[in-house]
Every structure is written in structure tokens, then in C-alpha cells.
């Protein structure tokens, strides 16, 4: 095969072979990652954690930063010493509080004596008789499922997941700031943050109700221009028995009903 040289000189440039324009776009980069026909390696493993539990997690009525932290917990993505060791870091994997135990995610949040003392001080209604397992996902799933319990009030549903957040904060405070936060302070701080969150939610709901009420109060019937008439109507539908209802009224320019 003969290749003819171009009569004009063009500057060389990089071209991305997997997009129509030849330009690299993140979307095509992701496509290439999972669809490269020349890639003979095994595709990346599915991330840790139950998809069902993660879906329940994102629906919880809590602040986003705690949702994200819990998602990282289920996904085994919290940077405890044992997890950092698996990432190639040359560090001591033992817990900074109890040096005989490895600092796993489950250890920090549930089974460490420090964490166990905090859970005991929190005095949650379901704590008596309950023992956390060695499986982090199982423990988080238990806390998430407690949101559907009819025997718990809103504060009792929210406090356990907030306590998880405060336990992780206390761990980081010890590791990075060398500050050993007392167990009672962690519990008190958890209760304060939950109450503050609930107060903010109530204020937003009250403001929203006030706005809707004000909007309804400002809605007034407007008279049509003579000699026109105006017809107002409404309708409803009941899904349980498929019953439909409707109504209307016709009024003239002074508001007198015609039908």
C-alpha cells in the first residue's frame, strides 16, 4: 500500500480515539474503562456493601455529611489503620486506645472498649440485651432498620447514627490532635446536635406551612369583564375505589352564580 504525503503541513495533536470529535471527555473516559476491547484484565470488583442497605441509607432524614460517612463505613472506605495497611502504608495497625486490638472500622465504631462505654452511656431503649456483632454492615443495617420502629421517637431513631459520626470524630481527634475526648462528652455532644437538627427541621416546616398559608390567603377570585362569565371547576379521584368527583360554578361580572 502506498501512502502519499500531504502537500500542506499540519501541527501534530493528541486525539482521543474513543469519541466522535477526537477530544477527551470524562464520559468517554468512563466508557473506555469498562468497554476497552483491548483490555484483557478482569473488570474492577463490585464495591463493598449491600446495595439495599445503601439505598435505605440515602433516604434517611439526616444531614448529608453523616449519610456520606455511613456510606463510607458500609463500603469499607473509612481510613482506619487496618484499611490503610491494605493500601500499602507501612503503619502500626493496632488501635491507639487499646494497642492489643487491630483498628478496624467495626472496632472503632462498635467493639472498642471506648466505643462500648459510649454506647452504654447513651442509654438507647434497644441497648439492653443487644450485642453488636463483628460485622460492620450488620451493625449499620440494624441502626438503619430501627428508623421503621414504631416504639421509638424521632430523637431515639436519629441519635444512634449521630453517635457513629461523633465516635469517628473522637477517633480523629485522638489521632490528629492527641486529644482524648471523654465518653460523656461524646454522648452529650451527640444529644445536643440531634436536638439542634430537629429544631432546625421544625423551623423549616413551620416556615413552609406559613408560606403556603399566606399564599392561599392571597388567592382571590377575580371578576370577569362584562359581559363575560367565568367558570371555576375542580375534580378529585379516589384510588382505592376509582371513584371520581367534580364540581363547577359559573359567575358573572358581579359574582352572581349562573349555574
> How many DSSP helices?
9
Name the structural class: mainly alpha
Averaged pLDDT, please?
Answer: 87
Specify the biggest β-sheet.
2 strands, antiparallel
Order of helices and strands: HHHHHHHHHEE
Brief account:
With 259 residues, this protein is mainly α.
Quick tags:
259 residues; mainly alpha; 2 domains; two-stranded antiparallel sheet; 9 helices; 47% helix; 7% strand; flat
Chain-wise SSE layout:
Layout: H1 26-35, H2 51-58, H3 64-74, H4 81-86, H5 105-111, H6 113-122, H7 136-145, H8 154-177, H9 183-218, E1 230-238, E2 243-251
Antiparallel strand pairs: 1-2
Helix pairs in contact: 2-3, 5-6, 6-9, 8-9
Describe this entry's structure for a reader.
With 259 residues, the protein is mainly alpha-helical. It folds into 2 domains: 51-214, no CATH class; 222-259, no CATH class. It is 47% helix and 7% strand. It contains 9 helices and 2 strands; from the N terminus they run αααααααααββ. It has a two-stranded antiparallel ribbon. The N and C termini lie far apart (88 Å). The mean pLDDT is 87.
